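Contributing new records

If you add data, match the layout below exactly. Sequence lines come first and carry their own label; structure lines follow with theirs. Keep one chain per record. Anything else will be rejected by the validation script.
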Amino acid sequence: MYYGISQLHLSMDEVWLMPFGLLLDLWECHKQYTGAAKPKREYFIDDIIPDGI
């Protein structure tokens, strides 16, 4: 509850009604944005879309 309200700037209703997995995803994005965590793998557009398309 604390992280959703104070760190992610969500209302209490948004935190209570949000699926738990989405809250964890938002928290992980917040940690990566602030530099507290690193992504496990970085994807680039060239890795996903092959040349010639």
